[in-house]
Amino acid sequence: MKIVIIGAGGQGRVVLDILRNNHQFEVVGFLDSDKSLHGKNVDKVPVLGDMSLLETFNARGIGGTIVAIGDNNVRCQFARIINSHGINLINAIHPSATIAQNATIGKNVVIAQGSNICAHVTIEDSVICNTGCIIEHESFIHEGAHICPGVKLAGHVTVEQRAFVGIGSTVIQNITLGEASVVGAGAVVLKNVAPETTVVGIPAHECSNAICSPITERENHHRDFGPTMELICNSRKRHSRRPPVAV
Ligand SMILES: CC(C)(COP(=O)(O)OP(=O)(O)OC[C@H]1O[C@@H](n2cnc3c(N)ncnc32)[C@H](O)[C@@H]1OP(=O)(O)O)[C@@H](O)C(=O)NCCC(=O)NCCS
Protein backbone atom coordinates (compact mmCIF):
# COMPACT_ATOMS: atom_id res chain seq x y z
CA MET A 1 0.00 0.00 0.00
CA LYS A 2 1.24 3.50 -0.89
CA ILE A 3 1.32 5.82 2.11
CA VAL A 4 2.40 9.37 2.95
CA ILE A 5 4.01 10.52 6.21
CA ILE A 6 2.73 13.77 7.74
CA GLY A 7 5.66 15.71 9.15
CA ALA A 8 9.10 15.75 7.54
CA GLY A 9 11.05 16.61 10.70
CA GLY A 10 12.93 14.35 13.12
CA GLN A 11 9.92 12.22 14.00
CA GLY A 12 9.10 11.88 10.29
CA ARG A 13 12.56 10.49 9.57
CA VAL A 14 12.26 8.05 12.50
CA VAL A 15 8.90 6.81 11.21
CA LEU A 16 10.26 6.51 7.65
CA ASP A 17 13.10 4.32 8.91
CA ILE A 18 10.68 2.06 10.81
CA LEU A 19 8.42 1.71 7.77
CA ARG A 20 11.38 0.91 5.51
CA ASN A 21 12.34 -1.86 7.93
CA ASN A 22 8.94 -3.52 8.10
CA HIS A 23 8.40 -3.58 4.28
CA GLN A 24 4.60 -3.45 4.66
CA PHE A 25 4.09 -0.03 3.06
CA GLU A 26 5.58 2.00 0.20
CA VAL A 27 6.29 5.53 1.44
CA VAL A 28 5.72 7.82 -1.55
CA GLY A 29 6.14 11.18 0.15
CA PHE A 30 5.93 13.51 3.12
CA LEU A 31 3.44 16.32 3.75
CA ASP A 32 4.68 19.29 5.76
CA SER A 33 3.44 22.83 6.35
CA ASP A 34 7.02 24.15 5.93
CA LYS A 35 6.96 25.52 2.37
CA SER A 36 10.77 25.63 2.20
CA LEU A 37 10.76 21.80 2.17
CA HIS A 38 8.28 21.44 -0.69
CA GLY A 39 9.87 19.83 -3.75
CA LYS A 40 12.91 18.69 -1.76
CA ASN A 41 13.81 15.19 -0.61
CA VAL A 42 14.12 14.08 3.01
CA ASP A 43 16.03 10.81 3.29
CA LYS A 44 15.40 10.32 -0.45
CA VAL A 45 11.61 10.74 -0.12
CA PRO A 46 9.97 13.84 -1.71
CA VAL A 47 8.10 16.43 0.36
CA LEU A 48 5.01 16.69 -1.83
CA GLY A 49 3.35 19.74 -0.27
CA ASP A 50 1.09 20.61 2.64
CA MET A 51 -2.00 19.02 4.19
CA SER A 52 -4.27 20.26 1.41
CA LEU A 53 -2.91 17.33 -0.65
CA LEU A 54 -4.81 14.91 1.61
CA GLU A 55 -7.81 15.65 -0.59
CA THR A 56 -5.92 14.17 -3.59
CA PHE A 57 -5.05 10.83 -1.95
CA ASN A 58 -7.70 8.79 -3.80
CA ALA A 59 -6.67 10.17 -7.19
CA ARG A 60 -3.01 9.40 -6.44
CA GLY A 61 -3.75 5.86 -5.24
CA ILE A 62 -2.49 6.63 -1.73
CA GLY A 63 -4.10 4.25 0.76
CA GLY A 64 -3.21 5.86 4.09
CA THR A 65 -1.06 8.09 6.22
CA ILE A 66 0.61 8.37 9.62
CA VAL A 67 1.11 11.55 11.65
CA ALA A 68 4.80 11.79 12.54
CA ILE A 69 4.74 14.91 14.69
CA GLY A 70 6.44 14.77 18.09
CA ASP A 71 4.20 17.28 19.86
CA ASN A 72 1.53 15.16 21.60
CA ASN A 73 -1.22 17.76 21.25
CA VAL A 74 -0.66 18.44 17.57
CA ARG A 75 -0.28 14.75 16.70
CA CYS A 76 -3.66 13.97 18.31
CA GLN A 77 -5.39 16.90 16.61
CA PHE A 78 -4.11 15.93 13.18
CA ALA A 79 -5.05 12.28 13.65
CA ARG A 80 -8.61 13.15 14.69
CA ILE A 81 -9.05 15.44 11.70
CA ILE A 82 -7.68 12.84 9.29
CA ASN A 83 -9.96 10.22 10.86
CA SER A 84 -12.98 12.47 10.44
CA HIS A 85 -12.15 12.78 6.71
CA GLY A 86 -12.25 8.97 6.42
CA ILE A 87 -8.54 8.63 5.58
CA ASN A 88 -6.85 5.44 6.77
CA LEU A 89 -4.31 5.91 9.62
CA ILE A 90 -1.60 3.24 9.66
CA ASN A 91 0.86 2.12 12.35
CA ALA A 92 4.67 2.10 12.17
CA ILE A 93 5.86 -1.01 13.99
CA HIS A 94 9.52 -2.01 13.83
CA PRO A 95 10.05 -5.74 13.18
CA SER A 96 12.36 -5.98 16.22
CA ALA A 97 9.58 -4.87 18.59
CA THR A 98 7.94 -7.62 20.64
CA ILE A 99 4.19 -7.31 21.05
CA ALA A 100 2.08 -9.76 23.07
CA GLN A 101 -0.63 -11.46 21.04
CA ASN A 102 -3.29 -10.23 23.44
CA ALA A 103 -2.10 -6.60 23.45
CA THR A 104 -4.49 -4.07 21.90
CA ILE A 105 -2.98 -1.50 19.54
CA GLY A 106 -4.87 1.53 18.17
CA LYS A 107 -4.25 3.58 15.01
CA ASN A 108 -1.50 6.06 14.16
CA VAL A 109 0.75 4.27 16.65
CA VAL A 110 4.57 4.12 16.51
CA ILE A 111 6.33 1.16 18.12
CA ALA A 112 10.07 1.63 17.64
CA GLN A 113 13.08 -0.69 17.62
CA GLY A 114 13.35 -3.16 20.48
CA SER A 115 10.19 -2.09 22.29
CA ASN A 116 8.53 -4.70 24.45
CA ILE A 117 4.75 -4.52 24.76
CA CYS A 118 3.67 -7.22 27.22
CA ALA A 119 0.52 -9.20 27.94
CA HIS A 120 -2.86 -7.45 27.97
CA VAL A 121 -1.37 -4.00 27.40
CA THR A 122 -3.58 -1.45 25.66
CA ILE A 123 -2.02 1.21 23.41
CA GLU A 124 -4.55 3.78 22.21
CA ASP A 125 -4.40 5.94 19.06
CA SER A 126 -1.45 8.25 18.31
CA VAL A 127 0.82 6.83 21.02
CA ILE A 128 4.60 6.72 20.48
CA CYS A 129 6.39 3.76 22.11
CA ASN A 130 9.96 4.83 21.50
CA THR A 131 13.16 2.81 21.13
CA GLY A 132 13.63 0.01 23.63
CA CYS A 133 10.79 0.90 25.98
CA ILE A 134 9.24 -1.82 28.15
CA ILE A 135 5.52 -1.65 28.88
CA GLU A 136 4.61 -4.39 31.32
CA HIS A 137 1.44 -6.44 31.69
CA GLU A 138 -1.99 -4.83 31.83
CA SER A 139 -0.71 -1.29 31.51
CA PHE A 140 -2.96 1.16 29.65
CA ILE A 141 -1.49 3.92 27.49
CA HIS A 142 -4.08 6.50 26.52
CA GLU A 143 -4.32 8.54 23.30
CA GLY A 144 -1.37 10.66 22.30
CA ALA A 145 1.06 9.69 25.06
CA HIS A 146 4.79 9.48 24.29
CA ILE A 147 6.76 6.72 26.02
CA CYS A 148 10.36 7.80 25.38
CA PRO A 149 13.38 5.57 24.68
CA GLY A 150 14.37 3.18 27.45
CA VAL A 151 11.33 3.86 29.65
CA LYS A 152 10.27 0.99 31.93
CA LEU A 153 6.63 0.86 32.99
CA ALA A 154 5.80 -1.89 35.51
CA GLY A 155 2.48 -3.80 35.48
CA HIS A 156 -0.89 -2.02 35.74
CA VAL A 157 0.50 1.45 35.01
CA THR A 158 -1.97 3.92 33.49
CA VAL A 159 -0.59 6.70 31.30
CA GLU A 160 -3.32 9.23 30.64
CA GLN A 161 -3.86 11.22 27.41
CA ARG A 162 -0.87 13.12 26.01
CA ALA A 163 1.44 12.41 28.94
CA PHE A 164 5.17 12.59 28.12
CA VAL A 165 7.27 9.93 29.88
CA GLY A 166 10.90 11.06 29.55
CA ILE A 167 13.87 9.06 28.37
CA GLY A 168 15.14 6.35 30.72
CA SER A 169 12.49 6.86 33.39
CA THR A 170 10.98 4.05 35.47
CA VAL A 171 7.44 3.80 36.84
CA ILE A 172 6.53 1.21 39.47
CA GLN A 173 3.34 -0.89 39.37
CA ASN A 174 -0.22 0.46 39.73
CA ILE A 175 0.80 4.10 39.18
CA THR A 176 -1.26 6.61 37.17
CA LEU A 177 0.49 9.38 35.22
CA GLY A 178 -2.12 12.12 34.76
CA GLU A 179 -3.30 13.72 31.52
CA ALA A 180 -0.60 15.85 29.86
CA SER A 181 1.80 15.21 32.73
CA VAL A 182 5.57 15.12 32.12
CA VAL A 183 8.05 12.70 33.68
CA GLY A 184 11.62 14.02 33.44
CA ALA A 185 14.51 12.04 31.99
CA GLY A 186 15.78 9.35 34.36
CA ALA A 187 13.06 9.81 37.01
CA VAL A 188 11.82 6.95 39.18
CA VAL A 189 8.10 7.40 39.79
CA LEU A 190 6.77 5.87 43.02
CA LYS A 191 3.53 7.89 43.41
CA ASN A 192 0.70 8.95 41.10
CA VAL A 193 1.42 12.09 39.07
CA ALA A 194 -1.36 14.70 38.86
CA PRO A 195 -2.57 15.95 35.45
CA GLU A 196 -0.48 18.71 33.81
CA THR A 197 2.28 18.23 36.38
CA THR A 198 6.00 17.74 35.75
CA VAL A 199 7.99 15.42 38.02
CA VAL A 200 11.77 14.80 38.05
CA GLY A 201 14.37 12.93 40.08
CA ILE A 202 14.68 9.81 42.23
CA PRO A 203 12.22 9.42 43.80
CA ALA A 204 10.26 11.62 41.41
CA HIS A 205 8.99 14.89 42.88
CA GLU A 206 7.10 17.82 41.42
CA CYS A 207 9.19 20.30 39.48
CA SER A 208 7.30 23.58 39.72
CA ASN A 209 9.76 25.45 37.45
CA ALA A 210 9.00 23.28 34.44
CA ILE A 211 6.53 24.13 31.70
CA CYS A 212 3.61 21.85 30.88
CA SER A 213 0.84 23.12 28.57
CA PRO A 214 -2.18 20.90 27.95
CA ILE A 215 -4.45 21.23 24.96
CA THR A 216 -7.54 23.42 25.44
CA GLU A 217 -11.17 22.59 24.73
CA ARG A 218 -11.31 25.39 22.16
CA GLU A 219 -8.57 23.71 20.13
CA ASN A 220 -10.46 20.42 20.28
CA HIS A 221 -13.19 21.95 18.15
CA HIS A 222 -11.01 22.64 15.11
CA ARG A 223 -12.32 20.32 12.41
CA ASP A 224 -10.60 21.28 9.18
CA PHE A 225 -7.12 21.77 7.83
CA GLY A 226 -6.95 25.58 7.74
CA PRO A 227 -7.28 26.25 11.48
CA THR A 228 -5.06 23.24 12.10
CA MET A 229 -2.12 25.13 10.64
CA GLU A 230 -2.86 27.94 13.08
CA LEU A 231 -3.09 25.39 15.87
CA ILE A 232 0.36 24.05 15.06
CA CYS A 233 1.91 27.52 15.08
CA ASN A 234 0.28 28.36 18.42
CA SER A 235 1.28 25.04 19.89
CA ARG A 236 4.89 25.46 18.75
CA LYS A 237 4.98 28.83 20.54
CA ARG A 238 3.47 27.38 23.71
CA HIS A 239 5.83 24.42 23.69
CA SER A 240 8.99 26.29 22.82
CA ARG A 241 10.63 25.04 26.02
CA ARG A 242 9.25 21.52 25.74
CA PRO A 243 11.77 18.69 25.44
CA PRO A 244 12.99 17.59 22.02
CA VAL A 245 10.73 14.85 20.79
CA ALA A 246 12.57 12.83 18.18
CA VAL A 247 15.64 10.64 18.53
C1 LIG B 1 11.69 17.55 32.93
C2 LIG B 1 11.91 18.44 31.71
C3 LIG B 1 10.75 18.26 30.74
C4 LIG B 1 11.96 19.87 32.21
O1 LIG B 1 12.23 20.73 31.14
P1 LIG B 1 12.07 22.33 31.37
O2 LIG B 1 10.61 22.65 31.56
O3 LIG B 1 12.74 22.98 30.22
O4 LIG B 1 12.77 22.62 32.76
P2 LIG B 1 14.24 23.21 33.07
O5 LIG B 1 15.27 22.64 32.18
O6 LIG B 1 14.10 24.70 33.13
O7 LIG B 1 14.49 22.64 34.53
C5 LIG B 1 13.73 23.05 35.64
C6 LIG B 1 14.42 22.52 36.89
O8 LIG B 1 14.28 21.07 36.92
C7 LIG B 1 15.59 20.42 36.90
N1 LIG B 1 15.46 19.26 35.99
C8 LIG B 1 15.04 19.30 34.70
N2 LIG B 1 15.02 18.06 34.20
C9 LIG B 1 15.42 17.23 35.16
C10 LIG B 1 15.59 15.81 35.23
N3 LIG B 1 15.31 15.04 34.17
N4 LIG B 1 16.00 15.26 36.39
C11 LIG B 1 16.27 16.06 37.46
N5 LIG B 1 16.12 17.41 37.46
C12 LIG B 1 15.70 17.97 36.33
C13 LIG B 1 16.54 21.46 36.37
O9 LIG B 1 17.85 21.23 36.82
C14 LIG B 1 15.94 22.75 36.93
O10 LIG B 1 16.28 22.83 38.30
P3 LIG B 1 16.59 24.26 38.99
O11 LIG B 1 15.34 25.05 38.87
O12 LIG B 1 16.94 23.86 40.38
O13 LIG B 1 17.73 24.82 38.20
C15 LIG B 1 13.23 18.08 30.94
O14 LIG B 1 14.38 18.49 31.63
C16 LIG B 1 13.36 16.60 30.67
O15 LIG B 1 13.82 15.77 31.49
N6 LIG B 1 12.95 16.21 29.44
C17 LIG B 1 12.98 14.87 28.97
C18 LIG B 1 13.67 14.82 27.59
C19 LIG B 1 13.51 13.49 26.92
O16 LIG B 1 13.07 12.53 27.50
N7 LIG B 1 13.82 13.46 25.64
C20 LIG B 1 13.67 12.27 24.85
C21 LIG B 1 12.87 12.53 23.63
S1 LIG B 1 12.65 11.10 22.63
What report would you give on this structure?
The chain is an alpha/beta fold. It has two domains: 2-69, 3-Layer(aba) Sandwich (Rossmann fold); 96-223, 3 Solenoid (UDP N-Acetylglucosamine Acyltransferase, domain 1). The chain has five helices and 24 strands. The strands form four sheets. An eight-stranded mixed sheet has the order 6-9-12-15-18-21-23-24, covered by helices on one side. Strands 7-10-13-16-19-22 form a six-stranded parallel sheet, with no helix packed on it. Strand 23 (198-200) and strand 24 form a beta hairpin. It binds coenzyme A.
Task: Describe this structure in a few short sentences.
The chain is an alpha/beta fold.
Return Rg in Å: 17 Å
Q: What's the CATH architecture name of the largest domain?
A: 3 Solenoid
What summary fits the major beta sheet? 8 strands, mixed
**What strand order characterises the main sheet?**
6-9-12-15-18-21-23-24
Could you tell me the CATH topology label of the largest domain: UDP N-Acetylglucosamine Acyltransferase, domain 1
Report the CATH C-level class of the largest domain: Mainly Beta
Number of strands: 24
> Kindly state the mean pLDDT as a whole number?
88
CATH superfamily placement of the largest domain:
Hexapeptide repeat proteins
Query: How many structural domains?
Result: 2
Q: Uncertain regions: pLDDT < 50 for 5+ in a row?
A: 213-247
In what range is the share of β-strand residues?
15-25%
Principal-axes shape call: globular
